[in-house]
Design a protein that fits this description.
Elements lengths: L2 H5 L6 E2 L3 E9 L3 E8 L4 E8 L7 H15 L9 E7 L2 E7 L3 E3 H8 L4 H20 L12 E4 L4 E3 L15 H8 L4 H5 L5 H17 L9 H10 L14 H10 L11 H15 L8 E4 L2 E4 L28 H14 L2 H22 L5 E3 L8 H10 L3 E7 L9 E5 L5 E3 L3 E7 L4 E4 L7 H10 L3 E2 L4 E3 L8 E7 L7 E2 L4 E4 L3 E7 L11 H10 L3 E8 L9 E4 L13 E7 L5 E2 L8 H10 L3 E3 L12 E7 L5 E2 L4 E9 L1
Parallel strand pairs: 13-16, 18-23, 19-23, 24-26, 28-31
Antiparallel strand pairs: 1-2, 2-3, 3-4, 4-6, 5-6, 7-8, 8-9, 10-11, 12-15, 14-16, 17-22, 20-21, 20-23, 25-26, 27-30, 29-31
C-alpha cells in the first residue's frame, strides 16, 4: 500500500455504519473518490467525499447535494448512477456506481489521438447520456474528458452532474481552472450564463480533441484561453488530422459556433446528426472494453470490426492490500511507475525540468514576482472579507456605502473586482453596505398625485402603483394623505405632512376624488344610479314623511359606517320621502259656517267657499255635510268643500 493510501484516515473506516472504505481511487480539487463496500447490499460502490475545507461552505454543500439529485433523476445507461447521499459529522458524501476502468482523459494520454470508430463510439454514448439530461432540464456545465468514464466491461458513462457549479475561485486550483476553461462556451466567458447549448460547445471541443489529439486553444494563462473561446472560431479537425472525414469536420464546426443559436439546440439534436454521419460513413458504434491483463490496462482497437471479450484479471495483490482493492486505478499507477523506470536518463531529464518548472512556479506563484487574484467577497461580512484577503497577502481597506439591496454590514463589491490579479500586499477596497440611506420627506398633502409620486421616487421610496382614493372637499387628483410602511418592519406611519424615512420604504398615496355628488332631493332611482357611478352601493331604502321633499325623492343619505371619507366600494342606505304626513279632516257637521271654515283652515286645509252664502250670513247657517268627509286622512292643504248647510 502506498504511503498516501496509508496516511488517508478514511481507508478502512466505516462510513454511516454502512460503507467500508477500501482504497482511494482519485483526488480532485473538490472531492476525493474511494472504492468502498456497501455492507448492507454486499456490493462495491464509489464513495465521493467532499473535502473538509469546503464543508463550511453552504453554497458548495448545496451544489454537492444538487449533483446527487440531478443524477438520481436520470435513468439512462450512459449516466453514472447515484445511489445515495448523506453526511456524517462534517463529511458530506455521494454513493455512486463503481465502474472499474479509465477516464477518456487517461485514454487520450495513452493513445494521444483516437481513431474515427473509437471517437464515434464514445461520442454516441456521451450524447445519449447528455440527451437524457437535457430532456430532464438538467445542464451538465462541466463536460470534459475527465468526466467521461470508460468501464472495463465496455460501458461508457458521463458523470459529475452539477458539481462544477459549486466550484468557487477560492476552491479551484489553477490546473482545475485551466481544464475547465478549455471547454468553456463563449457565452460563459462573456455573460456567465449557460444552457444546453453550452454543453454542446464543450462536446464540440472534446470531439475536436479526440480527433486531433490536442485542444484547439492554448495559452499560458486561463484568461488567454477564455479570450480565444470568445473571439476565435474553432478550426476544422482535418487541418491537424487529414484523416478526419468531412461530416465530422462539419459536426465540430456546428457544435462550436460562437453564437449559441447557431449550435444544435441540445444533445438529442446533435446525436441525430451524429447517427446520420454514422450511416454515411458506414460506422456502427461498438462496445469498448478495457483489457485487464497482468501488469497492464489497455483499450481494444475499435476499427478492427471485432469485439474483444474481457480477459480474466490475474494481477497479484500488492503486499498489505486485499486483492479486491486492486482496482483499475491501482493498475494504472503501477503501469505508470514501470514505464518511468524504463529509462533512467528520461527520469533525470524529467526531474531537471520539474526543478526548473518548480523554480519558475515559485517565482511567479509565491515568490517576489507573483500576482494573486482578488477573491469573490460579495455577500460576506467585512471580517470574513478581511480574513480572505489576508490569506491572499492583500490588504483590506473598508469603504462604506448605502445600499437598497445589500444587508447592513455585508460586502457589496470590491475594487479591483473579483478575479483581478494584483501584486501581493496591494490594497483592495472593500465596499460594505450601510443599508438604505435615511431621507426626510416633505409635506405631500395638497400636491397633485403626480407631484407627490415624483417627490417619493426621487427619495427612492417605493410608491404603490395604485393609490387609495376618497371623496373629500379637496380638488380631484389632490393628495389628502400618505401612509409609509418601513422596509425594516414595524407599524405604518402617517406621512402626509412629512416624515423621516429610509430609502426602500413603501408608500401609498391617498388621493381625493373631489366631493361625493349630493343626491338629496333627487328621485330615489336617479340617486341610486348616481351613487353607483361613484362606486357607492345603495344597500337599501327607508321611507319618511316630509313637508319639504316631494314623495319618491331622497330626504337624506346614511352616514359612512365607521366615519371618515367616503371611498369607492362603500355601501349606504337612503331615506326616501313619502311626502307630507296626512291629517284627519275635523268634524264640523252642525257647526256654524263661519266656525266650520275657521276650524278647517286652522287644521291646515283649504276651504272651497264659492258655493256658500255671503260671509255676512254665515252665522245663520250650520254645516250638514263636507267633502272629503269628516275624519278622513288627507294631505295638508287639501281643499275641503262644504256640500250641505241649512239655516239654523
Amino acid at each position: 500500500m502506498s504511503t498516501s493510501q496509508q496516511a488517508d484516515p478514511l481507508i478502512g473506516r466505516l462510513v454511516d455504519g454502512r460503507y467500508r472504505v477500501r482504497a482511494r481511487i482519485a483526488r480532485g480539487g473538490m472531492a476525493t473518490v474511494y472504492v468502498a463496500t456497501d455492507l448492507r447490499l454486499e456490493r462495491r460502490i464509489a464513495l465521493k467525499v467532499m473535502h473538509s475545507h469546503l464543508s463550511d461552505d453552504a453554497v458548495f454543500q448545496s451544489r454537492f447535494i444538487q449533483e446527487a439529485r440531478a443524477a438520481a433523476r436520470l435513468a439512462d445507461p450512459h449516466v453514472v448512477n447515484v445511489f445515495d447521499q448523506g453526511q456524517e459529522g462534517e463529511m458530506a458524501y455521494l454513493v455512486m456506481e463503481y465502474l472499474p476502468g479509465i477516464t477518456l482523459r487517461e485514454l487520450l494520454r495513452e493513445q494521444k489521438r483516437l481513431t474515427v470508430p473509437q471517437t464515434v463510439t464514445i461520442m454516441d454514448a456521451v450524447l445519449s447520456g447528455l440527451a437524457a439530461a437535457h430532456r430532464a432540464g438538467i445542464v451538465h456545465r462541466d463536460v470534459k474528458p475527465e468526466n467521461v468514464l470508460l468501464a472495463e466491461d465496455g460501458r461508457i458513462k458521463i458523470g459529475d452532474f452539477g458539481l462544477a457549479r459549486a466550484t468557487t475561485a477560492n476552491t479551484a486550483s489553477g490546473q482545475l481552472l485551466m481544464g475547465t476553461i478549455a471547454y468553456l462556451a463563449p457565452e460563459l466567458v462573456t455573460r456567465g450564463t449557460a444552457d444546453a447549448r453550452s454543453d454542446i460547445y464543450a462536446l464540440g471541443i472534446m470531439l475536436y480533441e479526440m480527433l486531433t489529439g490536442e485542444q484547439p486553444y492554448k495559452g499560458e494563462q486561463p484568461m488567454q484561453i477564455a479570450f480565444q473561446h470568445a473571439t476565435d472560431s474553432v478550426p476544422r479537425p482535418s487541418v491537424r488530422n487529414p484523416g478526419v472525414p468531412e461530416p465530422l469536420d462539419e459536426l465540430v464546426l456546428w457544435a462550436t459556433e460562437r453564437v449559441p443559436d447557431e449550435r444544435p439546440v441540445d444533445a438529442a439534436e446533435m446525436l441525430r446528426r451524429l447517427r446520420e454521419i454514422e450511416d454515411q460513413l458506414g460506422i456502427a458504434p461498438q462496445v469498448q472494453r478495457t483489457l485487464a491483463v497482468p501488469g497492464r490496462v489497455t483499450t481494444d482497437r475499435l476499427d478492427t470490426g471485432e469485439v474483444t471479450k474481457v480477459l480474466p484479471a490475474v494481477v497479484a495483490a500488492s503486499p498489505g492490500i486485499p486483492a479486491e482493492d486492486d482496482d483499475n486505478a491501482t493498475r494504472l499507477r503501477r503501469r505508470t511507475t514501470r514505464r518511468r523506470a524504463k529509462g533512467a536518463w528520461l527520469v533525470v531529464l524529467v526531474v531537471l525540468l520539474a526543478v526548473l518548472a518548480g523554480a519558475g512556479g515559485w517565482w511567479f506563484g509565491s515568490g517576489p514576482g507573483s500576482l494573486v487574484a482578488v477573491p469573490a467577497l460579495a455577500g460576506k461580512t467585512y471580517a470574513q472579507a478581511q480574513h480572505a484577503l489576508t490569506d491572499q497577502s492583500l490588504k483590506a481597506v473598508r469603504k462604506d456605502e448605502n445600499s437598497l439591496d445589500v444587508a447592513v454590514g455585508t460586502v457589496i463589491r470590491t475594487a479591483p473586482g473579483p478575479g483581478t490579479r494584483v501584486d501581493k500586499n496591494a490594497s483592495v477596497d472593500v465596499v460594505v453596505s450601510l443599508g438604505p440611506a435615511a431621507v426626510t420627506i416633505g409635506k405631500l398633502i395638497g400636491k397633485t398625485e403626480q407631484e407627490a409620486r415624483g417627490v417619493l421616487t426621487d427619495d427612492k421610496i417605493d410608491v404603490a402603483e395604485k393609490s387609495a382614493t376618497f371623496y373629500t372637499d379637496a380638488a380631484a387628483g389632490t393628495v389628502v394623505g400618505t401612509v409609509l410602511q418601513p422596509a425594516a418592519g414595524g407599524d405604518a406611519v402617517a406621512c402626509g405632512d412629512g416624515c423621516a424615512a429610509h430609502q426602500g420604504d413603501a408608500a401609498t398615496l391617498w388621493v381625493s376624488l373631489g366631493k361625493l355628488p349630493s343626491v338629496v332631493g333627487t328621485p330615489a332611482e336617479e340617486a341610486t344610479a348616481t351613487l353607483k357611478d361613484a362606486g357607492i352601493t345603495v344597500k337599501g331604502t327607508s321611507e319618511q314623511y316630509s313637508d319639504d321633499v316631494k314623495s319618491g325623492s331622497v330626504i337624506s343619505m346614511a352616514a359612512r359606517s365607521g366615519g371618515g371619507w367616503w371611498r369607492p366600494g362603500d355601501t349606504t342606505t337612503l331615506v326616501v320621502s313619502k311626502g307630507p304626513q296626512p291629517i284627519a279632516v275635523p268634524n264640523v257637521i252642525d257647526d256654524k259656517l263661519n266656525d266650520a271654515v275657521e276650524r278647517l283652515q286652522r287644521a291646515g286645509f283649504a276651504v272651497e267657499t264659492d258655493a256658500l252664502p255671503p260671509r255676512f250670513f254665515w252665522g245663520a247657517y250650520k254645516v250638514t255635510s263636507i267633502d272629503p268627509p269628516a275624519g278622513s286622512l288627507q294631505p295638508p292643504h287639501t281643499r275641503i268643500t262644504i256640500t250641505g248647510f241649512v239655516i239654523g
